[in-house]
Amino acid sequence: MSDRKARKPSVADVNKENAKNNIIRKKNLLEAWANNGIPYVPIQNTNQNKSIGELEYFPRSIRQFNFWDGSANSTQIRSGFPAISRNANDTLRSHPSLKNLVELVLDGLIARETLQQNQSKPIRIKKIRDSLAIEKKLRGIAEAELINVRKQQTEERRKYNDDKAASNSQIVELKKMVSELQRQNIDAVQEISGLKSRLMKVAPLKKV
Length: 208
Prior knowledge:
By secondary structure, the protein is mainly α. The protein has one domain (about 10-165). It is about 75% helix and about 5% strand. The chain has 7 helices and 2 strands, in the order ααββααααα. A two-stranded antiparallel ribbon has the order 1-2. Helix 2 packs parallel to helix 6 (about 95-120). The longest helix has about 80 residues, at about 125-205. It starts with a helix and ends with a helix. The relative contact order is 0.09.
């Protein structure tokens, strides 16, 4: 078994993986909003005695994304959140592909917000343009996701090939060791046989 397989992840490795997964959860949640629509927060309008709505809070920049932990959102929507928390800017910067996806998702959210705000307006051409804009943003996100998946597959394939090469190298080394031990065993057997032969010749002389 190689040292890589035998070594357990360190606390630092686990913390790094947890931090990355937190960013992915935040990105996935916002991406769902960009694709399906930003939720509305129900607000009671006391003057008209009816419920109206405003859009849920969402981060508009990388800095806001890093600080976003759901605390600025309504209780109703936050109750359905996965576990998310703030993340360090350095953590996001250490994953360039993921950072690029986050930037695309934030752009998509802003386009989605414009579309949703104009849905109640009767300007048809404006709504069509907004729809085309959000579709373009969403295609960009999907294409970036595909590129990221392909990069991950390439990295996993490279890692597999490295592990396989290391394993094959160890097998070759073990075969060499076995061959050497077998040769030493043959030499030892021959040496023991020679010693026994000499002892048989010496024994009669001692009796004389």
